[in-house]
């Protein structure tokens, strides 16, 4: 699972309108990708690293907590 660490508009996730494209906005703390959206490993690496248009990591991998054994 990935969490957003810097807010951004996803240029690969948009809706076309008569006035142009509206890009999905991710805010700090959001889960990436949003529910129903699939992305490939290269996109995850792009957004988690510096090889994106902003030049800084935008998402971070978060390990899901596993329940403690009793």
Q: What are its keywords?
A:
3-stranded antiparallel sheet; two-stranded antiparallel ribbon; 70 residues
Radius of gyration: 14 Å
Quaternary state of the chains: single chain
Number of helices: 1
Q: What is the N-to-C order of secondary-structure elements (H for helix, E for strand)?
A: EEEEHE
Number of strands: 5
- What would the principal axes of the Cα set say about the shape? globular
Structural class: mainly beta
Q: What's the rounded overall pLDDT mean? A: 93
Low-confidence stretches: none
* Adjacency order of strands in the biggest sheet: 4-1-5
**DSSP strand content:** 35-45%
Helix content: 10-25%
Q: Give the biggest beta sheet.
A: 3 strands, antiparallel
Termini gap: 25 Å
Description:
By secondary structure, the chain is mainly β. The protein is built from one helix and five strands. The strands form two sheets. It has a three-stranded antiparallel beta sheet. The longest helix has 8 residues, at 41-48. The relative contact order is 0.29.
Give a quick summary of the entry.
The chain contains one helix and five strands, in the order ββββαβ. By secondary structure, it is mostly beta strands.
Topology:
Layout: E1 2-4, E2 8-17, E3 20-26, E4 31-32, H1 41-48, E5 59-61
Antiparallel strand pairs: 1-4, 1-5, 2-3
């Amino acid at each position: 699972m990935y969490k957003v660490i810097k807010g951004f508009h996803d240029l690969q996730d948009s809706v076309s309108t008569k006035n142009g494209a509206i890009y999905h906005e991710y805010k700090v703390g959001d889960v990436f990708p949003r529910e129903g959206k699939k992305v490939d490993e290269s996109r995850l690496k792009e957004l988690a690293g510096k090889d994106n248009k902003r030049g800084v990591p935008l998402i971070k991998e978060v390990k899901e907590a596993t329940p403690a054994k009793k």
